[in-house]
Structure formats: structure tokens, C-alpha cells
Specification:
Blueprint (H helix, E strand, L loop, with lengths): L2 H19 L8 E5 L4 H17 L4 E8 L5 H17 L3 E5 L9 H20 L3 E3 L4 H14 L12 E2 L2 E2 L7 H11 L15 H16 L3 H30 L7 E6 H5 L3 H16 L7 H12 L6 E5 L2 E6 L2 E6 L9 E4 H7 L4 E5 L2 E9 L10 E5 L5 E5 L6 E2 L8 E2 H7 L4 H4 L3 E5 L2 E8 L5 E5 L11 E7 L3
Helix pairs in contact: 1-2, 2-6, 5-7, 5-8, 8-10, 10-11
Length: about 475
């Protein structure tokens, strides 16, 4: 056996060992190979039959090539290379050729999205359950550096895994240079993408400018980074198990509309790092499982859990929010802003109506306002009894304004309406519809629906009914 043949034989054996050790490909699987026409993908097409024969997996192959029409004659060349190789290997090929040339800002990200969308569609249509890419060890090193540069998360160290559900990467054990040498030794035709030689994209810059500098410190830097990713992935699995266990300890029953519900006291009892991981995973699951959860979102959720008052909400992204109430943090879809036009009544008109009162329509409900002489009070939490020293100039029904404050009767000092509602255990969805009765622009009474949908309210300290009150403003919902 010649030297080139022996080296190729050893490389094929390494790939087979890697596939078996990492459980990259499994017996009887139907594979969809994503072939670009470059050295890596053409080596993948050539290597898989050898791997299959060595491991006896009984794999079935088909391939996908996406022609972005971005490089003129080179795009045509790559398409033809893939077609010839697949015909020789008797591997069915599907070619997707874009009608319009794909170019412009974010080309690589858009091309990747398109590539994987087409692969998912084809895999579903033809029953090819596993998509196989030709990512190599150098790609892994670039991925680790890119994620560490862009995102403040140790998860960036995990890079790409050899097998992620229905996505397989059997060449992660090989470097780019040895793949090209394998192609040369085996006479495998492939195309060179000239754009890879220009640092116009982030990954190109890492490969062409950053990694060569790091290689002066460590000639095997790509291998070191890939090994780091493998170890980090194994440790991440341990953390994932600990996070899942903690999540089960802090989980609360879901109410209608909830995507997640966490007991804040139980969550606070967990170690800080584990607390952050639980919140990260809860947010990621709510967003769809594959979403990138930014560090600022986790920090905002941690701050929300650490608040002394049982209130507040933060945006999670994609139309979702987290709100706390009754000691529980709930992730749910943010409801459209509830906006109702305020309704005001002139004090003179109210006084002229005497005991009959005046009807006000607000928030789809009918209210009656009466101005009664002297001090009058009934124990009815659904009705507003407001003590006044003189007839008001204006009475207004509206919803609470952001940051609005008042001093609820029976509590010490002022608070925001939002914190009062949270402390009264008003459900989060009901808080936007809470009723504010304002007298001459001052909050006199706040009404809300409790967890049982019963109407309740609290008068402001300065507007309580006293024996000295000259008149009493009574506001209530009609037919209640």
C-alpha cells in the first residue's frame, strides 16, 4: 500500500471511529447530504460509503445542492461538480437553483437559513430524517471564537456538536488541510470558493487573520479549540441535567396563557448560577427552544425576581413577557396594549343631577356617579365611596398611567398603582384594566378584579369618608 493510500486509509478509519464513538450516524438511517461542491462536502460524499462499510450501518444517501447564483461561472462549476460526483456514487441529487441572485448584507446568514430550510423540506418530503453537513475541526474553532467574541456566555465554548437531534457532522474530527490532502490523494474533484480568501465576512476574518496569529502561540490552536468545545459540551450536559432538576423544583402549575410559571421563593433558594440557568432555559423554551437568549434578558429576569415588591414585568422578546405576582414569575405572550379613552364629568353637572346621578360609559361598562350630601359609607368593596370637603370640579374614570402613585387607605405612605395591584394579588392580565377614579386629577380610588374575578377597590387615604366630609362621591357599576 502506497504512502498516500495508507494515509487515506488511516483518515477513513479515524472518521469511522469518530462516528461510532460519538454516535454521529445510526444504523439504517436515511441521510440527506448538504453538498456545496467544496473540498469538505465532496470529501464527505466520498467518505460516507467507507464509514458505512466499516461500521455496517446500512445507510441510505441522497444529496442537496443549493445554487445561490452568487458567483457566476463558479456557481455553475460547483453545481456541475456535485452533479458528476453524485452520479458516479449513485446518490440521488436534488438541486435548488434560486430564481434571483442572492446577495447583499447578511448574505451568509440568509444563505444558511435558506439552505437549512430547503434541507428540512426535502428531508420531510423524501423521508430523509437526518441532515448531514461537512463541518470540520477548523470550522469548529471558528465557531468557538465567533461565539465567544459575540456573546457573553460559556455556552459559546460548546461550539457545534457531532450530533444534534437530526443534524449530523461526521467530519468534525478532521482539519481542513488534511481533508484537502485526502481529496488530492483520492483524486476527488472540488471547487474553490474565491470569496473564502477575502476577509469580508466575520468567519473569513477569523480564519484568515485571527487564527494565524493565535497559531504563533500554539500551532495546534484549531485542534485545541475543538477539544475545548468537546469538553465544554460534555460539561454542558451535566449542567443541563442540574438545570432540569432545579427547574422541576421551582415549577408551578400553569394557568391559561402561561408558557412557564416559576416559584420565586424556591428559585431564590437555588445557587445564583443555577438560578440564572433556570431562567435562561425557561426563556429559551418559551421563545421556541432554538432561540438565542441574550444575557440582558436573563439579567432583567433576575432583577425582576429580586424585587422587594411583588410586581413588575419585563420583555423577553418576540412578543413575550415575564410578569410576577403572588410570588410567581409567569412567562406568557404579551397582550396588546389595552387603551380606553378617559371619561370625565363636570362637577356642576354631577351636582345638578343630585341623587339621581349621571351615567358614564367606560371600558365597555356602564357606571353611575352620584354626589351625596354629608358623610355616607357602606361596606361594599365593589363601590367607590369618596369623601370630599367640597363639590368636585371634575370627576374622571380612566385606567392607571405608568408610574402613577397614590396612598391607599390602610397602607403606610404612597406606592405606585401597579405595586398596589400586585400586592392586592390582582391577576397580571387584569391590571391593565384596573379602574382609576380621579377627582380633580388626583387618584381617589382604584378598582380591580381579584383572582376570582370579584370587583374590589381601595380609596386613597386623603379621600376616605370622614364624619367631617361635606359630601360623598359614590361611583359604582350599574346592575351590580
Amino acid at each position: 500500500m502506497g504512502g498516500a493510500d495508507a494515509a487515506s486509509f488511516r483518515l477513513e478509519r479515524r472518521v469511522a471511529g469518530f462516528v461510532a464513538r460519538e454516535d454521529v450516524l445510526r444504523s439504517g438511517e436515511h441521510l440527506l447530504l448538504m453538498l456545496s461542491g467544496g473540498a469538505d462536502s465532496m470529501a464527505l460524499l466520498a467518505l460516507l460509503p467507507s464509514v458505512d462499510a466499516r461500521l455496517g450501518l446500512g445507510l441510505r444517501l441522497c444529496a442537496l445542492h443549493v445554487d445561490y447564483r452568487a458567483r457566476g461561472a463558479d456557481s455553475d462549476r460547483d453545481r456541475e461538480i456535485v452533479a458528476r460526483a453524485c452520479e458516479t456514487a449513485h446518490v440521488p441529487l436534488q438541486v435548488v437553483r434560486l430564481r434571483q441572485r442572492l446577495s447583499g448584507a447578511g448574505f451568509q446568514a440568509r444563505a444558511r437559513t435558506l439552505r437549512y430550510e430547503r434541507a428540512a423540506e426535502l428531508a420531510a418530503a423524501f423521508g430523509r430524517g437526518v441532515v448531514v453537513t461537512a463541518h470540520n475541526r477548523d470550522d469548529q474553532a471558528e465557531t468557538v471564537l465567533y461565539r465567544l467574541t459575540k456573546y457573553a456566555s460559556p455556552r459559546g465554548l460548546t461550539g457545534m456538536r457531532p450530533r444534534e437531534r437530526q443534524l449530523a457532522r461526521p467530519l468534525l474530527c478532521l482539519g481542513a488541510a488534511e481533508i484537502r490532502e485526502y481529496c488530492r490523494a483520492r483524486g476527488i474533484e472540488y471547487g474553490e470558493d474565491v470569496t473564502n480568501a477575502r476577509p469580508v465576512y466575520a468567519r473569513n476574518a477569523l480564519r484568515l487573520q485571527v487564527l494565524p496569529v493565535l497559531a504563533r502561540l500554539n500551532p495546534r490552536v484549531a485542534e485545541t479549540l475543538a477539544d475545548t468545545a468537546a469538553m465544554a459540551a460534555a460539561e454542558a450536559d451535566v449542567l443541563a441535567a442540574a438545570t432540569a432538576s432545579a427547574a422541576s423544583r421551582v415549577a408551578r402549575p400553569l394557568t391559561p396563557g402561561d408558557l412557564a410559571a416559576l416559584d420565586i421563593a424556591a428559585l431564590t433558594a437555588e445557587a445564583p448560577a443555577l438560578r440564572a440557568l433556570v431562567l435562561h432555559e425557561a426563556a429559551r423554551a418559551a421563545l421556541g427552544g432554538e432561540a438565542l437568549v441574550e444575557r440582558r434578558v436573563v439579567e432583567a429576569l433576575l432583577a425582576l425576581c429580586a424585587r422587594r415588591d411583588d410586581a413588575g414585568r419585563v420583555s423577553v422578546g418576540r412578543g413575550l413577557e415575564a410578569a410576577r405576582a403572588s410570588g410567581v414569575l409567569r412567562l406568557r405572550r404579551r397582550e396588546p396594549a389595552h387603551i380606553c379613552e378617559a371619561v370625565s364629568l363636570d362637577g356642576a353637572a354631577l351636582a345638578a343631577a343630585e341623587g339621581e346621578g349621571v351615567t358614564l360609559a367606560f371600558c365597555g361598562r356602564a357606571f353611575r356617579a352620584r354626589l351625596l350630601g354629608g358623610s355616607m359609607l357602606e361596606r361594599d368593596p365593589a363601590r367607590a365611596f369618596v369623601g370630599l370637603s367640597a363639590a368636585p370640579h371634575r370627576v374622571t374614570l380612566r385606567h392607571a398611567r405608568r408610574g402613577e402613585r397614590f396612598a391607599p387607605l390602610g397602607l403606610c405612605g404612597e406606592t405606585t398603582v401597579a405595586r398596589f395591584l400586585a400586592g392586592a394579588r390582582a391577576p397580571a392580565p387584569a391590571r391593565a384594566r384596573a379602574l382609576v377614579l380621579a377627582v380633580d386629577d388626583a387618584v381617589a380610588w382604584v378598582g380591580y378584579a381579584d383572582a376570582g374575578a370579584a370587583r374590589r377597590g381601595r380609596v386613597a387615604q386623603d379621600f376616605r369618608v370622614r364624619e367631617s366630609s361635606r359630601c360623598t362621591l359614590l361611583v359604582f357599576e350599574e346592575d351590580t
